[in-house]
Amino acid sequence: MTEPRPPQPRQRFQSFDDPSHRKGAERIEALRAALREHGIDGFVVPRADEHQSEYVPADAERLAWLTGFTGSAGTAVILMESAALVVDGRYTLQAPEQVDTGILTVVPLAESTPEAWIGVNLKRDQVLGYDPWLHTPDGLARLERAATRAGGTVRAVPNLVDAVWAGRPRAPAGPVVLHPDALCGEACTDKIGRIRAALAEGGCDALVISDPHNLAWAFNLRGSDVGHTPLALGYAILPREGLARLFLVSPEVDPALRAVLAPIAEILPRAELDDGLGSLAGVRVRLDAATGAVALKEKIEAAGGTADVGKDPITGMKAVKNAAEIAGARAAHVRDGASVVRFLAWLDGAAAAGGLTEIAAVEALEDFRAAGGDLREVSFPTISGSGPNGAIVHYRVSRATDRTVRTGELFLIDSGAQYPDGTTDITRTVAVGTPSAEMRDRYTRVLKGHVAIARAVFPVGTTGAQIDAFARAPLWQAGLDFDHGTGHGVGAFLSVHEGPQRIAKTGTVVLEPGMLLSNEPGYYARGAYGIRIENLVLVEPRTIAGGERPMLGFETLTLAPYDRRLIQPDLLEPEERAWIDAYHARVRETLAPRVDAGTRDWLERATVPLAD
């Protein structure tokens, strides 16, 4: 007998209300009326806040409110006679289900960018509006080129979605707290010194920190202004000499944080940011190309400063985890692994008994994590997809879409947690009943690609793009592929999706020891089932006997069994099988002492060596 499901925690970190709607025609018409009032012919609505963040506060969910699309990436372009929603490969199935396709044309990013669509659909002499807080200088340049090709122009205007959004939520303002040095591994004074050295090397006098993740890392603070990521919204101006100035949205700052920052920084309200930018006359200011808004650049230049648009040096520093952060990640994954294994053991029994729903599975997993201790949040809304819903890459279950897990199907669950010592992200695909031969073939090919990344050894200087194909090769051999990256960077009690490193065709950043990434190839049979297998991995040095060059490899941090019922052993090479057996032995040895007797019995069965 496995462990019973724990009692429900006091507060759930995710809801199942369906935020999508079919009011697209009504809301888009209201926006068009506002366009007419301002004398413009169109408006661009990105899925972004003023920091270009993936997860945004409720008052910045403009794209979802306007269109009904709830994905984490996408851009709508609303013209008077036509409108498009451009989404990437993760959302090509989800978007048409959520939006009114009679009003909005869903355009896959692989077929057309927002700028390409504008170039074709904007008419000569028409004016396209944009909010300068929601676009970077590079993004604006692309819009300008697209409008010029069409014979039109662009114009900065107040955000017109806000003008027609009745009942728009208030901006968040949660507590801002100190993240202790024991978990950060480096005092903020030392971090500021490194950042200033990088500014001097780049010939800049100051840095505007526009990314809340970088703000959190540099000043060892955490907040609760954004769901699933412990961020405090705001900005900082960091000069090469003198006090930094933090402009925080929330007035609720922990006295302990104030005391630590007092020697190096002044904490001010977000409303005083304009005054701070206005003091930068004659100053060369580095502005992050990825997150710095056009409005920031314009304000710096209006003050008589020079906006040096480039890389925020903090981003690269944050990506390389120090010894304390690595130790925290390992500890968090052991704790998380025990909770996930308890859930998987429970899931086997619940699915076999019948009546299990996608929502019930999400709630149970959160309960197991809460019972495991130190859970601060889920790191993203859990993807819980049974049967055909598993083929929707970023499916988010709602009460309207909730589906029963049925015998003969696959169930995909992609989830993660925020602990004070680390951030986790894991995907497992399990069989309910007896899987088909095709399911086992596809699962094993995905697993082969997953193992190829885990076992990869590569020279120092290698990028994620150079190893992305390792994960795809077993699928390519069968004429198959998947339409998302193989891996993303992960933060240390920060964003579950952290750059700049990634394993993808677009992963041009060199991988360095200390970087955390996901390893998550997949396969998706539209309308039938989805498969994804995900662990988090740590880049580490590797010694090769007789080797001539310094090499790197991956340490797998995630601990949970793969579903042996879905593995077709005759498709595996001996070294692949050996790696899986060794991994399963490590999972069993590490987690067995941390689970109840019933779960331990299940774990023993789930991790026995693969049969010939």
Automatic annotation (TrEMBL):
Instruction: Answer whether the UniProt record assigns the keyword Hydrolase to this protein.
Output: yes
GO terms for molecular function, please?
Answer: metal ion binding; metalloaminopeptidase activity
Location of region: Disordered: 1-22
Peptidase M24 C-terminal domain residues are 550-610
Q: What is its EC number?
A: 3.4.11.9
Q: Where is each Creatinase N-terminal domain found?
A: 27-156
> To which protein family does this belong?
Belongs to the peptidase M24B family.
> Which protein is depicted?
Xaa-Pro aminopeptidase
Q: Which species does this protein come from?
A: Methylobacterium phyllosphaerae
